[in-house]
Amino acid sequence: MSRPSLPRVCVLLSSFNGERFIDRQISSILDQEGVQVSLFIRDDGSTDGTLQIVNSFVQRDPRVVLLSDPEIGPTGLPTKAFFRLFALVDLSDFDFVSLADQDDVWLPEKLARSTHALTTHDAAGYSSNLTCFYEDGGMRELRKSGPQRKLDYIFQGASAGCTYVIRPHLAREIALRFGTREAIDALPDKASHDWLIYAICRGSGERWFMDESSGILYRQHQRNVYGAQSGAAGLLWRFKLARSGWYFTQILFLDTVLSPTAAHQQIFAAIRRLAVLDRIWLAIHSQQFRRGRFQAGLLALYFLCAKRPE
Fold first, then answer.
1. Which of 256, 224, 251 lies closest to 160, judged by CA?
2. pTM of the prediction?
3. Low-confidence ranges of the chain (pLDDT < 70)
């Protein structure tokens, strides 16, 4: 009796000036247990030794592929670089697609655990909590899981994108929607690829599984694009980001992405108007919009006080 084949996982990694950490990250991806891994890397214009490190892996391990993208070249933004990755890879030979940052460390069972969860729960997408680790050796858990709310995908992502594992059909949809030059140019500033992926999955009625465990060491350093902002500093950072108009810009961009259901249209229309009754209605329903009670409370307060989007 033949043994069942191991799940085939395509890992997509976007690199940019990552020479300090990328060697260890690639090694941890290739050391995954219980799966067949293929790693595809698209570099976004590194000027340090990143490409030399990547090429050293390419030369000695056929599972590592460095992609060329002369059509677009450097994008300058992580979200645009990741979406371009989806369009460059032929996903027909894979069972699952995973995203990877260049500076983390994956635990050996990360992909086996996530693919098993996707299969067991018949889900199209997976995310997990993270274990943050710092240059001074400190560690802490960053909790992202929680009871999913009816419409939370309009107001937040599932977790950090580096925890995501998705089905190929969802990845192909992402490629069709966001992988072309025209689509990439149309993305709002500082668009969040992890938020968009989660929104497309949940907004189309598919299941998403959130794992309370962590399979990743989420490296925190000064060059993190977002990182694990927490405590008073994290709240201040989020307040400044929201006040800049970024938050409403991201939400309203989803109006061009999600199907025009009655619930979606009611939310987008209320946010565009932000009249007194709209603010009250949004605040009252904030428990449907964020997974945590504290976050929902902050969102309700934001609805009551925020400037109307221009």
1. 224
2. 0.92
3. 1-4, 221-244
pLDDT in tens, 258-305: 999 999 999 999 999 999 999 999 999 999 999 999 999 999 999 998
- At 238 the pLDDT is 58
DSSP string, the chain: -PPPPPPEEEEEEEESS-TTTHHHHHHHHHT-SSSEEEEEEEE----SSHHHHHHHHHHH-TTEEEEP-TTT---SSHHHHHHHHHHHS--TT-SEEEEE-SS-EE-TTHHHHHHHHHHHTT-SEEEEEEEEEETTS-EEEE----PPPTTGGGT--SS-GGG-EE-HHHHHHHHHHHSSHHHHHHSPTT--HHHHHHHHHHHTT--EEEEEEEEEEEEE-TT-SS----HHHHHHHHHHHHHTTHHHHHHHHGGGTS---HHHHHHHHHHHH--HHHHHHHHHTGGGT-SSHHHHHHHHHHHHHPPPP-
pLDDT of 225 reads 47
Phi and psi for 80 in degrees, rounded to 5?
-65, -40
> Which residues pair with residue 267 across a beta bridge?
none
Domains, the chain:
8-228 (3.90.550.10), 234-305 (no CATH)
Give which of 140, 132, 66 is closest to 104, Cα–Cα: 132
For residues 200 and 177, is the Cβ–Cβ distance under 8 A? yes
pLDDT score for 241: 61
